[in-house]
Design brief:
Layout: E1 3-8, E2 14-20, H1 22-25, H2 31-45
Antiparallel strand pairs: 1-2
Length: about 60
Amino acid sequence: MSESANVLNIGNKNAGNISLNEEIYSYPVNEPLIKEFVLLTLANKRLGLASTKNRKIVSGSR
């Protein structure tokens, strides 16, 4: 049995149906992999502005 999905145009109107290949869309969802991808994507969006003081910047040094 083949699954089908509605195809919408840019105006959100129904433009027809498309049949989905059962071999591609019948695999189980790998939730840990999806979580890892989401966390990786969010981590890459961070700016990473943290810094430390070196010997020259530390107060009281010469």
